[in-house]
Structures are given as C-alpha cells and as structure tokens.
Design goal:
The protein is of the alpha/beta class and 468 residues long. 27% of the residues lie in helices and 21% in strands. It folds into three domains: 4-22 and 76-346, TIM Barrel (Alpha-Beta Barrel); 26-68, no CATH class; 358-463, Sandwich (Immunoglobulin-like). It is built from 13 helices and 18 strands. It starts with 8 loop residues before the first strand and ends in a 9-residue tail after the last strand. 40% of the residues are buried.
C-alpha cells in the first residue's frame, strides 16, 4: 500500500450543502437580527442598506450586524430556476477548466444532499419531500457526465416542526432512519461521506454515524467564532473548539467527537466561504500546503450552500490558491471527489472494490409465515451491522436491527409475529460500506422472490455513482 506521507499533494474538496432554493422575506431578516442581537428595528430596505454599510449606531455591534446581513449572504437563490441558472454556469467546461489543477483536471463539486421532510410550517419555501434535492443533483451529474460526488447531508428536526428552525438532537423523530431506508429502497444508494447539518455534531450523532458512514467532513475548528452572534457562540452551533485545526484527518474518540480516539470513522476539516463563521482564509490555504510539504497528502476542504452563489465562492478560493501555489512548487494540488480524497489521504491510494461485499439469502418457509433472511459479508464491513430497510405493503418504510451470528461477517433477520410477517413485506434493502468507504446495496421485491423460488441468493451491487 502506498504511503500517503510520500504524496505531497493537497486534495481540494469543495463540499456544497445541497438544500435547494431558500426564501427569506425582509421581515424575516429583521426578525433574525432581533433573535441574534436583541435589536428590534422596523423592517425597511433603506434600514437594511444602512445596516449593511454599518451606518447605524448599534452600541458596538455595527460590524457584527453588517456581517449577518451582508448582501452576499442574503442574496438567495429562492427558486429552482435561479439555482439551475447558477448550476449551468458553474458546471460548464469553461468554468471548471478556468484554473486547472496540477494534473490538468477541472473543478469538482461534492453535492451533499438533504431531504426536507417532517415540517409542519415552511416559511423559507424549501423544496419538501423525499429525494427531491438528491434527484436534482443526481440528474445533474448524469447529464454533465462529471466526476462530481453525491453525498449525505442531514438536519435533525426541530421540536416545533418548523422548517426554518435548527436542532442538534437526531432522535426527536425517526427521520434519519427514514431518509436512509428510502434512499436504499427507492434509489439503491447508501452514503459513505457525511456533512453534518450546521456542521454540528453531538454524542448521539457521533455514535450514530459510527454505525454506517465512514467519512465525515464536518470539522470546523477555527478561530473565527464571533461571540456577539448569540446563535453561534458558546458552542451552540458547529462546536469544534477542541478539534484539530491543522488540516489533519483523525478518528474521533467515542465520548468526544472533537478529539482523536479509537472510533472507526474519519473526520476531516472543512471551513466556509460565503457565510459568517469559520471562514477559509489565505492563511489557512497556506497551512494546508505547508502540511502537504512536510507530512504528505492533505485534504483541504471548504463548504457552502447552493442557495447562494457558488461561483463567487469558487472564484474567491481560486484567488487565494493563486497567491499560495507559487510558494510551493514542490506541492501538487488536485480538485477531488470527497471519497477519493479521503482514501488518498488515509490509505495512500484509491482502489475500487474488485468484488461485491454482501450476499443475501432467503430461506424457505419454516412454520406459518416465518422466513429467515441471512446476510453475509466476504470481508469485514465498516460498521457492526448492515443497514436493514423494509418497505411494507402499506407503503411504510422501516429500519430494524439484525441478529449477529458472526460479528462483522454474518447476520440474520427473522420475519415473524414479533417483527414483520412475510406477507406484510413489499421490498427489502440491505446496505453497508466497506472499510474504504464504498457502499454495497442489495434490494429485492418480496413478492417476486416468493413466487419465483424458495431458496434465493443475491449479491450486492456497487451503485454507479460510487465508481470512478
């Protein structure tokens, strides 16, 4: 296996939290200022412009307020037409190839797709529904024939069920499991790279991600944490104050995701452009190149949102890159898909699977409506058990635990009175990642299998967008 310490390359990973269009009324902008700073002002365009220029006396908060309402931050793509117009421009060959990387390659995007579901109110006019955002970007990748990445992004539900409110607790409801179950069964897809909503993790998400998703690009360790913004200070959002800030990739501690430990998954750092916290600077770009020179392969990532102008962020980054690369002629840089970058930085190379990892066997009926599903892996999986997704004939999606026969190798699931009766089941999906972060997915229709055979064996497929 190649040694990544001998690869003096900076792998540039542009992660976009793909959330679709976002609308914010003038009144809502001023309400945010009241929520964040306790400043109550009558909403007007004239007042907004004065705040943006720092022309109103706010008792020392002028610059912090101006940062929140900067035109770049509140000029939203509030319809899909606006998002698509931007995407057409920034995914063109001319834009991607404007500044080629060291190998002559063009710009690569990593679309981290959310499902807006579970809301009862939606004042920001988000595109709500399972797969809506995911399908949009999957289709974009197919139509452009690009090497862009398709990855995972998740926001926990707020207790109010309001679409514009944020939360950190993943178990307010079963949304996390619903999203994964539906992507497995409906789209034969399973994530290997995660971007945490609000770049925020806590013990519950640390443990949950550890079960299935090997790569996590959410570390926002930064000195740029403005305490005057009450929705961001004191670790309220994106708390990475104790995490590595040297562009190293680390395995987190079981009890503290911010420090290195013995967990299986890997966390990489990603700073922001086009927002108001944890901003990427030329100094940080230079740190990444210095690390690559001294220690080998380094992952440099920045993140943004598709409801703002991504092109402006790319141009800002390229401006910083041009200032740095001339000082590091011995360091290469590559625009990279996130899974590939993680593999090259951690393992030193990027090797696609040579065989399917999973096989699934359905045994014959035993007594009554009881069936036994056996899942086997021909090499150790990333997590302790594959993700089992079940769609019942009434259209409901479920996730359940497996029974462990041989850890990391063989599991079973019995369909019976205490789980699901076989005649209730419509579709079964099983998914896992291998330890290099390649997903393996098996889906099959229960009725067709029952009618065709009493003893079935199926092997997993590696979804096309997970291949390079």
């Amino acid at each position: 296996m190649p040694d990544p310490r001998h690869d003096h390359t900076v792998y540039i990973v542009h992660c976009t939290d793909a959330e679709g269009p976002l609308y914010e009324s003038l009144e809502a902008t001023f309400q945010r200022l009241a929520d964040i700073f306790g400043i109550t002002l009558p909403p007007s365009r004239d007042t907004l412009r004065k705040l943006q220029r720092g022309e109103m006396d706010l008792g020392g908060l002028e610059q912090d307020v101006a940062r929140v309402v900067h035109p770049r931050l509140i000029t939203y793509n509030d319809t899909w037409d606006k998002v698509d117009a931007m995407l057409e421009r920034i995914t063109s060959k001319a834009f991607r190839q404007a500044v080629p990387d060291s190998a002559g390659g063009g710009w690569v995007y990593n679309w981290c797709c959310i499902d807006h579901v579970g809301y009862e109110t939606n004042p920001r006019r988000r595109d709500c529904g399972y797969h809506n955002i995911f399908d949009h970007y999957r289709r974009l990748i197919q139509e452009t024939g690009s090497s862009d990445g398709l990855h995972f992004h998740f926001h926990p539900s707020h207790p109010s069920k309001a679409g514009h409110r944020s939360a950190t607790f993943y178990f307010h409801d079963l949304k996390f499991y619903q999203v994964l179950a539906r992507r497995i069964i409906d789209r034969q897809w399973f994530p290997s790279v995660n971007r945490a909503g609000l770049q925020t993790e806590r013990p519950d998400s640390n443990w949950l991600l550890e079960q299935w998703i090997p790569f996590d690009i959410s570390n926002m360790a930064s000195e740029d944490l403005p305490s005057a913004q009450s929705d961001l200070g004191e670790g309220m959002s994106g708390d990475w104050r104790r995490a590595p800030n040297d562009w190293s990739v680390y395995q987190p501690h079981h009890d503290d995701y911010q420090i290195p430990g013995n967990c299986r998954r890997y966390i990489a750092r990603s700073l922001n452009l086009g927002t108001r916290i944890g901003l990427l600077t030329e100094h940080e770009v230079r740190k990444a190149f210095e690390r690559a020179r001294r220690h080998g392969a380094t992952l440099l990532s920045f993140a943004d949102h598709d409801f703002r102008d991504l092109g402006e962020n790319v141009q800002e980054f390229l401006g910083m890159l041009k200032q740095v690369v001339t000082d590091y002629p011995d360091v290469q840089f590559r625009y990279a898909e996130a899974r590939e970058a993680m593999n090259r930085v951690i393992f030193g190379d990027y090797q696609e699977p040579t065989r399917n990892l999973l096989s699934v066997k359905l045994g014959p009926a035993r007594r009554g409506d009881t069936r036994l599903l056996t899942i086997e892996a021909n090499e150790p999986t990333f997590g302790p058990q594959p993700f089992l997704a079940i769609r019942t004939r009434d259209g409901q999606y479920h996730h359940d635990n497996l029974d462990f026969q041989t850890p990391w190798s063989t599991w079973t699931y019995t369909f019976h009175e205490d789980s699901f009766l076989w005649d209730q089941v419509d579709t079964i999906g099983v998914a896992t990642n291998d330890r290099r972060g390649f997903p393996h997915v098996v889906c099959f229709n229960a009725k067709e299998l029952t009618e065709s055979t009493e003893d079935l064996s199926i092997s997993a497929a590696v979804p096309l967008e997970h291949r390079r």
